[in-house]
């Protein structure tokens, strides 16, 4: 049994230490907002924050956590969809199917913190999550709108 | 009517419960609170339920997979109903209900850009009929004639200024006869439809609470990982189950059928870990097991000159045109296999008992899954049910004549009766076992006269038929009519947009051993790439402007011409491209809609940069402009992925690409800006989910030629030494 801190709460989890955090979150804690897309850190659908940094959770195993690491998932980004990224996503109807959007939002939230006044070039250089529906231009607009809302 | 209906449905449920030993099918199993509320609320007709609190539930037969159909259909119903948009919600009926009610909702199939265009009349009629019943109920209450009652935003107003909400009279309205005839609004009267309203289904996509099929869980549920034979026609020779049976969480190791092996565990990660460690031997048929890209190349090349071919479009005497030509232009093109890569891999949860089979899955055609569940389980259709889950992308992979994800889940669940089993395909299994965009080639000959006019053209398509591979019953005397999408002379689906006096378009069917499928845009993708690139070649060979050359052949195709003109104006064709850049242009018609695109590119060394895209669409009517725009943008993302960077290859009968590292798709930094021009001309209903994808590639590649003289005839463009970025 390992103890992990997710969205401010400590949880005991029963999983092998080489289990990716993605599957710990989804299958042990029922936090299914974090998505499986590729399992090789290529698509970003599983992006979460660990100790404040965006991480592709399919590639981080339970044993990679160090004591005190705080994990934030999409479910914990805000209590009521009030994070500026979430507000902007709703205002601009960014998602299409929505499957990749948890990861996009978590990546965008971390990006916006580091780039509070982002340019298109900043966004293009940093936002590497894949979207098969092709919502990229609205994601870009959404990040800029979120910067205004922040 | 409601009472009758509810009684009959209750009767149905009771009899089903009796026949299944107490396990009812339909709503009670896994019903949400909303569904149970709905069951108890007055249904005005199949499309509209009004609850006492004035909430209007619109039944949606088509499925939402990102394309916005859900919101559009609800807008159409709400428009005719004059509902209060803030009080409108929706629900999905199940295919079992549809069958039980003699398919009152029509087809659930959501593909071919049909979501709105094939059901708009049905749903609008449903909304209008419901409104008429609400008005009649209020008129009865007030003792006035129905003509004296008006309806607006969910409120009924009588002659004396009295008002009643829809919810207040819903019960009485539901008891009235459904009117035999209603008059639908003219689109010019629309106030809900036709507007860029926000989608109804966005909020839960922003906080992780939206439950996709892959997220679904049930008490006692186990998880399965699978391996399917890696070569078409291969079978399982043997597995060493003992090697993994002691691994953590593993409950069962089983051969599902001739081609599939599964490990069932408490969690999917443990099942996946075990199946990766499971020794499996395959029987691989020699002919397929030796098939590679050289074989594909040879097979398709042979078809380019074969004597026998199916004719899709023919006019005049094409050979005579070549004999009289001042100049003959020739070129060969090819289009590779593509994979859908829906972001949510294939998956399904199944629960089988001795007398029921229930599946929860994301599907584009739940009735096909219902049939598959029945056929696989051996149970009757009324004993089976499919619960439609949210799709993480579809693009033609899910349920368009291939329900393998449902079939496999039911087979595994049959081995574990009474236990729900969720089967998730790993990304690798998903990519290795797709229904792939067909691989084809085309050979053109074009005859130009002394004035540079096109007098004759032969387009020979060689290659793979989707119908032959996926649904041979749809072939017509061996011919696949779908092969000629956008190339047929007369078709409301996709008509050829040029007058060519002597024309032959034919298809030599050559089917390599890889299962084809419907991939967003389907055969329009290669047909448009081939034709619009070659027309561009002809223009340059004739020394004519590509826009002017096209216009000269479009006098009888005003709608094709109108969108072409719209993008020419939008990009500023006449003024010409800025220094160091060039424009490309193209048009195509498909799925009932007319589309065109123009691109502005520059090329630095081998790198192509797309500075601007201008896209025009005439779908007849636009139900939600901002959502149509979203589809146009998305079409460029998917279309440019296919032409610029993605392809599926095969060696030794096995697909070589297994994940995004070897099958890249477009990402943020490569995505161009897209200027959208909507030019709905009215009088017809076309689709919007797919058509723009047809024009994504030729617009860009025609611009590349104009700038560099490099004509890209094979995709992806890296085969011509180019890349996007």
Automatic annotation (TrEMBL), chain A:
PROSITE patterns: 2FE2S_FER_1, 2FE2S_FER_2. CDD domains: fer2. GO terms for molecular function: 2 iron, 2 sulfur cluster binding; isoquinoline 1-oxidoreductase activity; metal ion binding. The keyword Cell membrane does not apply. It holds the Pfam family Fer2. Residues 1-77 form the 2Fe-2S ferredoxin-type domain. It is an enzyme of class 1 (oxidoreductase). It comes from the Bacteria. Keywords: 2Fe-2S, Iron, Iron-sulfur, Metal-binding, Oxidoreductase. Its EC number is 1.3.99.16. Gene3D superfamilies: 3.10.20.30, [2Fe-2S]-binding domain (1.10.150.120). This is Aerobic-type carbon monoxide dehydrogenase, small subunit CoxS/CutS-like protein. It comes from Wenxinia marina DSM 24838.
Automatic annotation (TrEMBL), chain B:
The keyword Transmembrane helix does not apply. Keywords: Oxidoreductase. The keyword Oxidoreductase applies. GO terms for molecular function: isoquinoline 1-oxidoreductase activity. Pfam families: MoCoBD_1 (PF02738), MoCoBD_2 (PF20256). SMART domains: Ald_Xan_dh_C. PANTHER family: ALDEHYDE DEHYDROGENASE. This is Aerobic-type carbon monoxide dehydrogenase, large subunit CoxL/CutL-like protein. It comes from Wenxinia marina DSM 24838.
């Amino acid at each position: 049994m390992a103890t992990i801190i997710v969205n401010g709460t400590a949880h005991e989890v029963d999983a092998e230490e080489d289990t990716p955090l993605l599957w710990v979150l989804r299958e042990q804690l029922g936090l299914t907002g974090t998505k499986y897309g590729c399992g090789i850190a290529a698509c970003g659908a599983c992006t979460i924050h660990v100790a404040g940094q965006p991480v592709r959770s399919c590639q981080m195993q339970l044993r990679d956590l160090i004591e005190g690491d705080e994990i934030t998932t999409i479910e914990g980004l805000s209590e009521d969809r009030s994070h500026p990224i979430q507000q902007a996503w709703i205002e601009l109807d960014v998602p299409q199917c929505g499957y990749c959007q948890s990861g996009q939002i978590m990546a965008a939230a971390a990006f916006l913190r580091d780039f509070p006044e982002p340019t298109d070039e900043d966004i293009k250089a940093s936002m590497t999550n894949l979207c098969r529906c092709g919502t990229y231009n609205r994601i870009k607009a959404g990040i800029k709108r979120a910067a205004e809302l922040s | 009517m409601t009472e009758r209906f509810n009684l009959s449905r209750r009767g149905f449920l009771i009899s089903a419960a009796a026949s299944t030993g107490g396990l009812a099918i339909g709503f009670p199993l896994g019903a949400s609170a909303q569904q149970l509320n709905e069951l108890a609320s007055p249904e005005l007709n199949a499309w509209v339920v009004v609850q006492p609190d004035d909430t209007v539930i619109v039944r949606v037969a088509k499925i939402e997979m990102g394309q916005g159909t859900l919101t559009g259909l609800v807008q159409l119903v709400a428009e005719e109903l004059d509902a209060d948009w803030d009080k409108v919600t929706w629900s999905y009926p199940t295919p079992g209900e549809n069958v039980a009610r003699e398919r009152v909702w029509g087809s659930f199939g959501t593909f071919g850009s049909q979501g709105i265009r094939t059901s708009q009349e049905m749903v609008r009629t449903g909304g209008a009929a419901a409104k008429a019943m609400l008005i009649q109920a209020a008129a009865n209450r007030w003792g006035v004639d129905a003509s004296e009652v008006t309806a607006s935003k969910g409120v009924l107003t009588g002659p004396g200024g009295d008002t009643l909400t829809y919810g207040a009279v819903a019960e009485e309205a539901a008891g009235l006869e459904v009117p035999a005839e209603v008059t639908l609004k003219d689109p010019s009267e629309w106030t809900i439809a036709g507007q860029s309203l926000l989608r109804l289904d966005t909020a839960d996509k922003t906080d992780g609470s939206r439950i996709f099929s892959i997220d679904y869980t049930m008490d006692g549920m186990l998880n399965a990982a699978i391996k399917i034979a890696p070569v078409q026609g291969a079978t399982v020779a043997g597995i060493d189950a003992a090697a993994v049976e002691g691994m953590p969480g593993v409950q069962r190791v089983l051969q599902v059928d001739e081609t599939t092996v599964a490990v069932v565990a408490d969690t999917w990660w443990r099942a996946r870990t075990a199946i990766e460690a499971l020794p499996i031997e395959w029987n691989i048929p020699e002919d397929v097991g030796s098939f590679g890209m050289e074989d594909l190349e040879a097979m398709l090349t042979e078809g380019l000159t074969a004597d026998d071919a199916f004719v899709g479009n023919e006019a005049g005497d094409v050979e005579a045109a070549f004999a009289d030509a001042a100049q003959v232009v020739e070129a060969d093109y090819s289009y590779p296999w593509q994979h859908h890569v829906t972001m949510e891999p294939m998956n399904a949860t199944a629960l089988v008992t001795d007398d029921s089979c229930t599946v929860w899955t994301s599907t584009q055609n739940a009735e096909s899954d219902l049939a598959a569940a029945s056929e696989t389980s051996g149970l009757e259709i009324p004993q089976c049910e499919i619960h439609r889950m949210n799709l993480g992308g579809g693009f033609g992979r899910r349920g368009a004549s291939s329900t393998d994800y449902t079939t496999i889940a039911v087979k595994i669940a049959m081995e574990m009766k009474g236990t729900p089993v969720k089967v998730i395909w790993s990304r690798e299994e998903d990519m290795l076992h797709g229904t792939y965009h067909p691989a084809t080639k085309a050979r053109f000959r074009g005859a130009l006269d002394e004035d540079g006019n096109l007098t004759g053209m032969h387009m020979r398509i060689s290659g793979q038929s989707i119908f032959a591979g996926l649904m041979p019953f749809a072939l017509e005397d061996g011919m696949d009519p779908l092969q000629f999408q956008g190339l047929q002379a007369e078709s409301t689906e996709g008509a050829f947009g040029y007058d060519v006096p002597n024309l032959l378009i034919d298809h030599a069917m050559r089917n390599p051993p890889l299962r084809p499928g419907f991939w967003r845009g389907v055969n329009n993708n290669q047909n448009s790439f081939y034709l619009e690139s070659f027309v561009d070649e002809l223009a340059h060979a004739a020394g004519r402007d590509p826009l002017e050359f096209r216009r000269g052949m479009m006098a009888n195709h005003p709608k094709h011409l109108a969108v072409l003109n719209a993008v020419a104006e939008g990009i500023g064709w006449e003024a010409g491209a800025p220094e160091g850049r060039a424009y490309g242009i193209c048009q195509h018609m498909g799925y009932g809609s007319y589309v065109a695109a123009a691109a502005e590119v520059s090329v630095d060394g081998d790198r192509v940069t797309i500075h601007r895209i201008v896209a025009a669409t005439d779908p007849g009517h636009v139900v939600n402009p901002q959502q149509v725009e979203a589809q146009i943008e998305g079409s460029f993302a998917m279309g440019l992925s296919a032409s610029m960077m993605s392809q599926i290859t095969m060696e030794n009968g096995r697909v070589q690409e297994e994940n995004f590292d070897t099958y890249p798709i477009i990402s943020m930094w490569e995505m161009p800006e897209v200027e959208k021009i909507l030019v709905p001309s009215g009088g017809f209903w076309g689709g919007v989910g797919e058509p723009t994808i047809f024009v994504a590639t030729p617009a860009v590649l025609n611009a590349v030629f104009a700038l560099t003289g490099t004509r890209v005839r094979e995709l992806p463009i890296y085969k011509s030494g180019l890349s996007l970025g």
